[in-house]
Design brief:
alpha/beta, Rossmann fold, L-2-Hydroxyisocaproate Dehydrogenase, Chain A, domain 2, 2 domains, six-stranded parallel beta sheet, three-stranded antiparallel beta sheet, about 45% helix, globular, binds ligand NAX, NAD(P)-bd_dom_sf, Lactate_DH/Glyco_Ohase_4_C, Malate dehydrogenase
Length: about 325
């Protein structure tokens, strides 16, 4: 057994965490040889519910779960953490404008960025799931000047997984046959799930499918609006699949992407593919030993260019809004 890893999770009494925490504690994030110390953050009114979740964690008697601490103080929870999953966020309330939502979340992510900056371990890796995820990650990153910018990411692996399944079902293959999928841009309805660089059974996915109309009119909108479709069907937003993607995103980051494949991760742009430097935007990335690299050299045709630019324009607007509000 190696040294236990400290994993912080925020929004711990929420619905994503009701799946996420149990999967982390059972070893699905760090593997069967690593003990985990869970450090859970909630707002004060949700602490009682969180106590109930902790009772359930206890009742699983997970061999790999070394300890669980809960608090409503980010400085306490983030103390010494190696991994931080920022799931908790302020949902959009009735009559709330997008800029109000950015501001409400800005308050949360400035504070959590500062607390991570002051208390997290030197090797911390941070993933933001709570929406608007890309811009929340941007805010946290700007408020943590001592943490290298490449340690911040936002989740687009759920969109990636949705795209894998849509493509696999269309081509009547199983999901592992679909590789090199990319989600570009924002985790929002403007995201661009890209089949033109993906492969099915090692061949170009768009060519294998051979149906441009399906790609434009079915595939892209189905993936981009899947979250809304789940709410419509289930009456509440994606939870187990979001937990699954949060685990997969972080596991791949720590353990590496398989040879010959990549994942989608929203990370700080270095200007690649014309995405303005500094935005947290989703790219195709490979990972190794806890580091990521944006896949280079993909040719972007006019169709893909337009889609990427539209999503990046939205991210630029979000950045401008949070800059005006003094959050970054
Ligand atoms: P819930 O509303 O069930 O849970 C959120 C929890 O966060 C609540 O228990 C709340 O008390 C807590 N919270 C609020 N402010 C907090 C703070 N300052 N510190 C700590 N905890 C705080 O939402 P849930 O369904 O779990 O979703 C969580 C977030 O994930 C939402 O923002 C949601 O929009 C986002 N999602 C992101 C996805 C992605 O792919 N990036 C997909 C799924 C999901 O929609």
């Amino acid at each position: 057994m190696t040294t236990p890893v400290k994993v912080a999770v925020t929004g711990a009494a929420g619905q994503i965490c009701y799946s996420l925490l149990f999967r982390i504690a059972s070893g699905q994030l760090l593997g069967p040889d690593t003990k985990v110390q869970l450090r859970l953050l909630e707002i004060t009114p949700a602490l009682k519910a969180l106590e109930g979740v902790v009772m359930e964690l206890d009742d699983c008697a997970f061999p790999l779960l070394d300890s669980v601490e809960i608090s409503d103080d980010a400085n306490t929870v983030f103390d010494g953490v190696n991994v931080a999953m920022l799931v908790g966020a302020r949902p959009r309330g009735k009559g709330m404008e997008r800029s109000d939502l950015l501001e409400a979340n800005g308050q949360i992510f400035t504070g959590q960025g500062k607390a991570l900056n002051d208390h997290a371990a030197d090797d911390v890796r941070i993933t933001v799931t709570g929406n608007p995820a890309n811009t929340n990650a941007l805010i946290a990153m700007h408020n943590a000047p001592d943490i290298p910018t490449e340690r911040f990411s936002a989740l687009t692996r759920l969109d990636h997984n949705r795209a894998l399944t849509q493509a696999a079902q269309k081509a009547s293959v199983s999901t592992p046959e679909v590789t090199k999928m990319t989600i570009w841009g924002n985790h929002s309805a403007t995201q661009y799930p890209d089949l033109f660089h993906a492969e099915i059974g090692g061949r170009n996915a768009a060519e294998v499918i051979g149906d441009q109309a399906w790609i434009e009119n079915d595939f892209i909108p189905t993936v981009a609006q899947r979250g809304a479709a789940i709410i419509e069907a289930r009456g509440s937003s994606s939870a187990a699949s979001a937990a699954n993607a949060t685990i997969e995103h972080t596991r791949l980051w720590l353990q590496g992407t398989p040879e010959g494949d990549w994942t989608s991760m929203a990370v700080r742009s270095d200007g690649s593919y014309g995405v303005p430097e500094g935005l947290i935007s989703s790219f195709p990335v490979t990972t190794k030993d806890g580091d990521w690299e944006i896949v280079q050299g993909l040719e972007i045709d006019e169709f893909s260019r337009g889609r990427i630019d539209a999503s990046v324009a939205e991210l630029t607007e979000e950045r401008d809004t949070v800059t005006e509000k003094g959050l970054i």
